[in-house]
Write a structure and sequence with these properties.
Collagenase (Catalytic Domain), binds zinc ion, alpha/beta, 7 strands, two-stranded antiparallel sheet, single chain
Length: 277
Amino acid sequence: MIYKFLFFLLILPVLSFSGVNCSLINKLNPDCFQKRVEARLNIALLYYGEQMIEEELQDIGDRLKEEFKKSTRNLISLNVKDIKRISFEDKLPKNFQIPGVHDEEDLMNLWHHGFYRGNLISKVYEVYKKRVSQKKLKEIDAIVVITSAQFEDLALSYGRLAVIEYPTYGRWGHPGEMVIFYPSQTMLVDTLIHEVGHILGLKHSSEECFDLETEEQRAQCCAEDPNSEGVMSHCRNRYSPEVVHEFSQCQIENIEKSILPSLLKGKKHQALFREKC
Ligand SMILES: [Zn+2]
């Protein structure tokens, strides 16, 4: 009995701060960061699907690195520790049809929507784990995924994984035809910085504007909100941004006071105190 007690008292805290429990080896949502000397976030950048070539992914990685540092005013830098283009593991089931869609690649991308829905994130995590060494995975803080597989939203994040659709499909008022939209590199990078912001523990800015009823009220609220041009705000022009948005002053303060210290010391990050922006 006394040994058990000693185990909990002495060994468990050592295990949780040795990095294993804070790493992505066992789960996608570890509740602490790994301790580090430099304010640098190590990511794996993946493309899951068939439509993006390796060079394009490399370019996005370079731009993401540059813009992320700028957007945090040099507080946190991003390091692309691993970059991989991974083909779909599944095969398109015979007889799978969608009215108005004939191309096999499009059908495959759309098939994911019905089959995986919210579980696509776990699928990509499992697929990636098979292709990375434990040593490397232990060093990675977040997995950033661009995929042609369709899911519920244009982009989302869960735990330490962020995902965005590229391309994205929709009927957008054309019931008879499927429209394929290829987000620009600026839009991809802007959205990915927003999702990495969530991974770091930041919440949406200007949320109160989206509780308002009319479009007019929302526009007025956004116009008056000092955080509306920040990357964590849905007020920003996120569908055709001309520039990549940065973190607003209020979110910069959250990064400085709360996120950065916990990143460096390897603390739990979900329980952080953050100012509402
Ligand atoms: Zn969001």
